Please model this.
Amino acid sequence: MSIKKIAVVTAGGDAPGMNAAIRSVVRYAVSKNIETIGVMRGWWGLINEELKPLDRRSVSGIISQGGTVLKTARCPEFRTKEGQARAFNTVKKNKIDGLVAIGGNGTFSAAHSFYKNHKVACIGIPASIDNDINGIEQTIGSDTAINTALYAIDNIRDTATSMERVFVVEVMGRGCGYIALEVAIAAGCEEVIIPERKYNLTSICQDIVEGNLRGKLSWILVVAEGAASAYEIAKKITKITRLETRAIVLGHVQRGGRPTALSRILAARLGEAAVDCLLRGLKDKAVSLKCGRIETVDFKKAITGKKIEVDKSLDLIKTLT
Model:
């Protein structure tokens, strides 16, 4: 089947670099004489036929913008047969030959289900600050989120040292400790708490007290939001150690902001690759950059299992502190 018209959708949580990916998809599609339609507000837009034509000019100037110009939303209705049937009607009515879905695990699960149920050719572009998609080496936005959190923690370190305090910094990562691990290593933090590993607060407090007795008067502990509450951890540390402890939650500041060069370049390459996959007749797959080369990963593999390996990263944190 020849590809004459494609649609692009951003779904789930936003990630810096999504706009760069949209731009890449649209401009490369135009160069191949393919009409491109933008789906507004994630899968809701496909269900409710909220579509807008996209051309070279409509994506001009968005490469440096965070978020997504197509907007995004959670859409539980797309998990239902009725919701997908309405979305499929939109695809048929508008003569859409293929779909590029930009997002993370939830987006890929939805695209995989849509293909299974209605045989709509879907190609995924991995965009997630958590970098937790199985078989994907690097997701768009994860580098930016790490650098945003790192900048904040570097600033917190100044106060922690000056005021001789313990700080507990909560970063995003509901089910994955990738951001927490990477930031803890890059910022030279003393401890990290992540969902993938049980933590022993008594042992952590013992390390803090022993360090304090040796003259170490500041301490930064990074917590992934899915593992524990920074406020609760801080209260317990103060109670056990009698040392002044402060909690800081970075929150959604990590999702926004201008994407880094790495996130933009990755988006540019994967956007082009996604369109190429549709032209080659591929479907039900995600595109990935591995060792500098474009590869594809089956949606089924991408949405199954965990990718993060924590042991070596944790050992590195302990060795360097």
